[in-house]
Write a structure and sequence with these properties.
This protein is of the alpha+beta class. The protein has helices at 13-22, 44-60, 119-133; strands spanning 28-32, 35-39, 64-68, 71-74, 80-82, 86-90, 100-101, 108-112, 138-143, 148-156, 159-162, 165-167, 171-173, 181-183. It has one domain: tt1808, chain A (Alpha-Beta Complex).
Length: 192
């Protein structure tokens, strides 16, 4: 897919923010590559996986919070807006911020794939690239389709340089600045 430019974007970022602000609670909107994206409402397994990860982060790094659905300004050139399933940042990092925060200081973003047709393009490509371009040190993709976790790290020139993939059940080591290691055996309970 060819990335959009400011000239062929569906709307301005200001128009998007106005639409997103007035969207009903049953819909989550994002603005990626100059295009309006609808993020599907998560199912029970999606929520259980996120809660498992939240507990892991709290146990290993009580100095950090894993914020669900925190709006981030990504893609400096195309002025993107994304709501990762989770944004790991120091405690109180987002206090006083508005609906869309600067990604500076975010240590890791997290996406758990959903059962929809957009997952491949959105979570595995566009968001990955947007988070790398924004300089977010780590992007964790929990891929329910493949039963794996991919830890993208070392963003450089809009791409992550490292992307090891681990099967559910493996011990996963997150690089600095996240610096967490945990066993993913629990995720086997959510494999379908």
């Amino acid at each position: 897919m060819t990335p959009s430019t400011a000239d062929d974007a569906q709307m301005s970022v200001e128009e998007f923010e106005q639409i997103a602000h007035h969207a009903p609670e049953t819909v989550t909107l994002e603005f990626i590559n100059g295009r309006l994206e609808v993020k599907h409402v998560p199912d029970g397994d999606h929520g259980a996986i996120f809660m498992w990860l939240l507990r892991q982060c709290m146990q290993h790094r009580p100095d950090l919070d894993l914020h669900p659905e925190q709006g981030l300004k990504i893609e400096t050139y195309r002025k993107g807006r994304a709501r990762p399933d989770g944004a790991l940042a120091p405690v109180r990092h987002f206090a006083g911020e508005g609906e869309w925060s600067d990604p500076h200081g975010v240590l890791m973003t997290v996406e758990v794939t959903s059962n929809d047709a957009d997952t491949d393009r959105r979570d595995r490509v566009e968001k990955r690239d947007g988070y790398a371009e924004a300089g977010i040190p780590v992007y964790l993709l929990i891929d329910r389709d493949t039963g794996t976790l991919t830890v993208h790290s070392e963003p450089k020139n809009g791409s992550y340089q490292q992307s090891p993939t681990y099967p559910y059940g493996a011990t996963v080591e997150f690089p600095d600045p996240v610096a967490i290691t945990f066993n993913t055996e629990e995720l086997k309970n959510y494999a379908r």
